């Protein structure tokens, strides 16, 4: 009987083992990165949309009962009429951004507001309808991307803000791009330090270009009219407002 050859599998060399392990690590890191991107671009929008819907529903209920957006008071004269960080007080409607566009406006511009509730009101700036600068911020991408279409505003567009006092109609004026350090856009007269305001201005701020924080895109509007609470809402948003109030009623609140 002839001798038979026995074939044995050679052991991988150390270099091959290292390369194989590195490859597995890179694949794992790639999967983690993809999951993170999916979370950032997809899930944060879903989560923020739900939070905003809940806050909007509470605001509508408060408008009905006459309690939404009232400044807090502690009983001390010095503390009366102070808005609290995280306190929602209004709903902003921007038809240019979509037929049913409506998002809550909350005092403060920290992550707990912008990432969850949508539109934040810069502390120290005016309230809706007041002479001076009512300035707000919102994300342009992720976390609800409320101001994604801020660059689409054109002459004739309106921005509506609903509070316990009624509806404030602002007419779009212009858009500019500035460096993130330009906080003069928040002045009572935007970009004009020391000037006494004579009109009520609305300033919308967001990041620019999309998916970066390199610059800021700023859209300005001026107050055109006020519709007192209890009156019919402005015609352009009447259907959206009616739907919000109807949905709240059907929701059992």
From TrEMBL:
Gene3D superfamilies: Sortase. The active site is at residues 139, 207. GO terms for molecular function: hydrolase activity. Keywords: Hydrolase, Membrane, Transmembrane, Transmembrane helix. InterPro entries: Sortase (IPR005754), Sortase_Class_E (IPR053465), Sortase_dom-sf (IPR023365), Sortase_E (IPR042003). It comes from the Bacteria. It is an enzyme of class 3 (hydrolase). The chain crosses the membrane at residues 21-43. Its EC number is 3.4.22.70. This is Sortase A. The lineage of its organism: Bacteria, Bacillati, Actinomycetota, Actinomycetes, Micrococcales.
């Amino acid at each position: 009987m002839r001798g038979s050859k026995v074939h044995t599998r050679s052991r991988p060399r150390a270099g091959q083992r290292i390369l194989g392990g590195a490859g597995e690590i890179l694949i794992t890191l790639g999967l983690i990165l993809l999951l993170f991107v999916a979370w950032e671009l997809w899930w944060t929008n879903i989560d923020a949309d739900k939070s905003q819907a809940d806050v909007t529903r509470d605001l509508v209920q408060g408008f009905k009962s006459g309690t939404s957006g009232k400044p807090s008071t502690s009983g001390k004269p010095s503390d009366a009429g102070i808005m609290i960080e995280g306190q929602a007080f209004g709903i902003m409607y921007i038809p240019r951004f979509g037929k049913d566009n409506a998002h809550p406006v909350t005092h403060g511009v920290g992550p707990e507001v912008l990432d969850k509730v949508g539109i934040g009101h810069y502390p120290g700036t005016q309230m809706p309808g007041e002479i001076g600068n009512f300035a707000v911020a919102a994300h342009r991408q992720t976390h609800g991307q409320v101001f994604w279409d801020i660059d689409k505003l054109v002459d004739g567009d309106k921005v509506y803000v609903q509070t316990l006092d009624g509806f404030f109609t602002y007419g779009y004026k212009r858009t500019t791009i500035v460096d993130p350090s330009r906080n003069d856009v928040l002045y009572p007269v935007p970009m004009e330090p020391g000037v006494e305001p004579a009109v009520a201005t609305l300033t919308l701020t967001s990041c620019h270009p999309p998916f970066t924080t390199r610059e800021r895109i700023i859209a300005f509007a001026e107050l055109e009219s006020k519709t007192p609470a209890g009156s019919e809402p402005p015609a352009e948003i009447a259907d959206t407002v009616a739907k919000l109030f109807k949905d709240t009623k059907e929701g059992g609140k």
